[in-house]
């Protein structure tokens, strides 16, 4: 079942602009992960942030986590046309096997 | 990173036939794998947890007799869609972890079209 909500559902920006996507979840988590999916393809892991972390960076990606608000954000800076994809947050509640529960996703379009 | 290979990538089948999808962890052992279904422009919905050597755990609303899961080895899980119907047309994706609270590795997905 889906745990989280993501907003916006769709985002269209110009190349060079920043893109911010938000994710909210409902239960306590061990970690939260962000994934990218190009149309009709599998998922690619972007970044994992643990419940005791508040912010994490990886290249042009910046992720924040607020466990008190049960929310996370993904910021992509200086976007490129190649960043066009769907982005999903997924929560790991620490269950056996590391089951992930996905948010609804944000479809990002970066116009050249 | 670890590699999960899913096969086939794309399959078209006639109504009433069965389709088997394979998910392999290529360079690690996975006692647990997960099967998801994704409809167009929607998120991934967990169908079942595949457990090596034991029965799969199905999510509510997923018919276990229709979606047969076998996890006979530490590197292979299979999902068989039995007596497929057009409404089963979807994108099916598997994932596995290398252990611990780490990222999941996803197969490239299988697009199933039932005609």
Give me the number of helical elements of chain B: 0
Number of helices of chain A: 0
Low-confidence segments of chain B, given as residue ranges, are none
**Biggest interface in this structure?**
A-B, 29 and 31 residues
User: What percentage of residues of chain A falls in helices of 4 or more residues?
Assistant: under 10%
Could you tell me the number of beta strands of chain A? 11
> Which sheet architecture does the biggest sheet of chain A show?
6 strands, mixed
Described by the principal axes of the CA atoms, the overall outline of chain A is globular
The helix-strand sequence of chain B is: EEEEEEEEEEE
Give the overall pLDDT of chain A as a whole number. 92
Calculate Rg of chain A over CA atoms.
13 Å
Number of strands of chain B: 11
Strand content of chain B: over 45%
Radius of gyration of chain B: 13 Å
Write the layout of secondary structure elements.
The complex is a heterodimer of chains A (112) and B (115).
Chain A: E1 5-7, E2 10-14, E3 19-24, E4 31-37, E5 43-50, E6 55-58, E7 61-66, E8 71-76, E9 85-92, E10 100-102, E11 106-111
Parallel strand pairs in A: 2-11
Antiparallel strand pairs in A: 1-3, 3-8, 4-5, 4-9, 6-7, 7-8, 9-10, 9-11
Chain B: E1 4-7, E2 10-13, E3 19-25, E4 32-38, E5 44-51, E6 57-58, E7 67-73, E8 76-81, E9 90-97, E10 104-106, E11 110-114
Parallel strand pairs in B: 2-11
Antiparallel strand pairs in B: 1-3, 3-8, 4-5, 4-9, 5-6, 7-8, 9-10, 9-11
């Amino acid at each position: 079942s889906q745990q989280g909500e993501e907003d916006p559902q769709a985002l269209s920006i110009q190349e060079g602009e920043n893109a911010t996507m938000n994710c909210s979840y409902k239960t306590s988590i061990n970690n939260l992960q962000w994934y990218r999916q190009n149309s009709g393809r599998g998922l690619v892991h972007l970044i994992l942030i643990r419940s005791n972390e508040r912010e994490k960076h990886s290249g042009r990606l910046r992720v924040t986590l607020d466990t008190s608000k049960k929310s996370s954000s993904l910021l992509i800076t200086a976007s490129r046309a190649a960043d066009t994809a769907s982005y999903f947050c997924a929560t790991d509640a620490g269950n056996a096997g590391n089951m992930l529960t996905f948010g609804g996703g944000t479809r990002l379009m970066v116009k050249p | 990173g670890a590699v999960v290979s899913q096969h086939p990538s794309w399959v078209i089948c006639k109504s009433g036939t069965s389709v088997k999808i394979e998910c392999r962890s290529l360079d690690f052992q996975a006692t647990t794998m997960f099967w998801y279904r994704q409809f167009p422009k929607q998120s991934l919905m967990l169908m079942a947890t595949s457990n090596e050597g034991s029965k799969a755990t199905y999510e509510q609303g997923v018919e276990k007799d229709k979606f047969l899961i076998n996890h006979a080895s530490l590197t292979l899980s299979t999902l068989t869609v039995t007596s497929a119907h057009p409404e089963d047309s979807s994108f099916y994706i598997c994932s596995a972890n290398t252990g611990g609270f780490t990222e999941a590795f996803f197969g490239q997905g299988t697009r199933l079209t039932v005609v």
